[in-house]
User: Which sequence fits this backbone?
């Protein structure tokens, strides 16, 4: 078969992932009657309002609840929003959709679509590696956030978490600590703080509501103190606390006292889980994304014979397509849509 005839692509500047005639993921495109929402990160939410009016929206229950906490009061009452269980096979048009966890954050999934002729196509979404279950497909759209051979981490995420806990305890002894991270990574950190550190945690009302959803789904996160409030005022004056900032929260502008930790692997060094920018400022390479070798391992695990690399959400799509062909001997090309956000776009 001509490899280019696999009906998969990423088609508009906001990154709508096409999987055959019936399904689009993480963006709006004209035609498909269903939209899969793989997770709630902003770079996957484009056109959601349009989709809500025109398409069947398919997601997991945690994603549905996170969306309600974040965006829209009318979601609970909409009949075109369908939460699937993991591995449940759902018929839409002439296709069948199955959602399987991809370890990226609460509720996040890979998408398998079985087409009428038996062809299996899929989308990784943003994914972590290793995974228990990779989708098995003929053709795959893969996230290319860490698609370059430079994006290698020679340490495990377990090691990062340990180093984070040690660093946090050391910094707390000197004053308050401010922690910034993306959704999902931040909730991992909150579990570690709750388990290992035990100090008051201050967060915005918005973040508090988001964390409540994680707690519903089994995350062991202690109660957070909402800021602003009287209690928060007392804790801030006391000076022994962690303050956390998630997506959508205003970041600290000028820290009068204490230190800051950013949780991100984006500018990390391959051999260093912790980077010290100054005595008061650190970055820990906690990430919910597979690195370069994890990405190749994932592609192999899916069995795909043809791969499209997402050229909208990562600047490394061309490089990744090149490496897939060279290292795996699998046909690959970047998606036809170019990145609209340009260089410097951050993974979400
Ligand atoms: Zn994401
Ligand atoms: Zn993303």
Assistant:
């Amino acid at each position: 078969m001509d490899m280019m005839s696999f009906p998969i692509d990423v088609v508009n500047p906001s990154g709508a992932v096409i999987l055959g005639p019936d399904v689009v993921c993480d963006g709006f495109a004209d035609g498909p009657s269903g939209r899969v929402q793989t997770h709630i990160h902003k770079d996957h939410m484009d056109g959601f309002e349009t989709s809500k009016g025109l398409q069947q929206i398919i997601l997991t229950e945690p994603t549905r609840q996170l969306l309600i906490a974040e965006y829209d009061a009318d979601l609970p009452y909409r009949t075109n929003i369908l939460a699937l269980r993991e591995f449940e096979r759902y018929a839409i048009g002439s296709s069948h959709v199955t959602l399987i966890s991809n370890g990226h954050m609460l509720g996040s999934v890979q998408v398998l679509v079985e087409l009428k002729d038996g062809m299996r196509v899929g989308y990784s979404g943003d994914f972590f590696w290793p995974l228990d279950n990779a989708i098995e497909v003929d053709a795959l759209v893969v996230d290319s956030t860490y698609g370059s051979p430079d994006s290698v981490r020679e340490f495990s995420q377990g090691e990062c978490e340990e180093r984070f806990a040690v660093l946090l305890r050391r910094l707390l002894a000197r004053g308050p600590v401010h922690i910034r991270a993306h959704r999902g990574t931040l909730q991992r950190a909150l579990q570690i703080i709750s388990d290992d550190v035990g100090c008051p945690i201050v967060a915005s009302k918005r973040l508090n509501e988001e964390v409540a959803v994680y707690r519903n789904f089994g995350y062991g996160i202690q109660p957070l103190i909402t800021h602003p409030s009287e209690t928060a005022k007392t804790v801030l004056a006391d000076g022994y606390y962690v303050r956390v900032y998630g997506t959508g929260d205003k970041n600290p502008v000028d820290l009068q006292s204490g230190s800051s930790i950013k949780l991100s692997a984006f500018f990390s060094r391959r051999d260093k889980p912790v980077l010290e920018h100054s005595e008061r400022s650190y970055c820990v390479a906690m990430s919910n994304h597979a690195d370069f070798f994890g990405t190749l391992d994932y592609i192999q695990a899916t069995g795909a014979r043809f791969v499209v690399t997402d050229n909208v959400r990562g600047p490394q799509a061309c490089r990744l397509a090149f490496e897939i062909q060279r290292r795996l001997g699998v046909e690959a090309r970047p998606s036809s849509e170019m990145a609209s956000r340009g260089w410097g776009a951050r993974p979400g």
